[in-house]
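Human: Note token order:
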Amino acid sequence: MPGTRLSQQDRVAIATGLAEGLDYAAIARLIARPTSTVTREIARNGGPGRYRAHAAQRATARRARRRPGAVRPAGGTATVPDGRDQAAVAEFADRFAALLVQLGLPRMVARVLSCLYVTDSGTLSAAELVQRLGVSPASVSKAVGYLEDQELIRRERDGHGRREQYAIDSDVWYRSMLASAQRNALLAEFARDGADLLGAATPAGQRLDTAASFLSEIGTDLVRAVERRRSGNGLL
């Protein structure tokens, strides 16, 4: 079962659904939430004609800060022990996940990746991910499996060796770019086989041959660029 808390991307999906004329039940199916959740969310944030995702997110953060137990400095903003604005960090993580979804990652995969990325240690257990994201252990397990397959995170044991944790390294984008280059190389090889099959003199063969050359060159340039960046300043 999904968590009860709506994320920034949930609210963006609600706003998009309203703009497209979807009813509440259809929007609820879109974000895998009960219709009652969508109904309450829209009603408490201006109704269907005035609902705005970012405004709803800010209003939710304000309500959370007013709840008993929230730590408030003199300025009234809820913070975590390191002094950061907890609501702002959570909103950034949601926006980061939404961007990753736009770039093609599955929604839950994007949420797990962004959650790890904004954590100073870069390491969280499955239980911590479940608690932070408000989702089921099965959802986290599936997302973690995807990220491991893509070599974007790694599995390790905690200091006592008792609990599995998932970690993201500072070179995650380096490895991601290399994986992208490898995909380009596979596509180039496939296109070249197609060009040979169809014949270089035919329009279809020429089209595939052009694609093969382009993908191959892009992949080579990408590998050179990330290797140069990695060896030049160690930022990746």
The first strand starts at residue 123 and ends at 125. The radius of gyration is 22 Å. The longest helix spans residues 203-233.
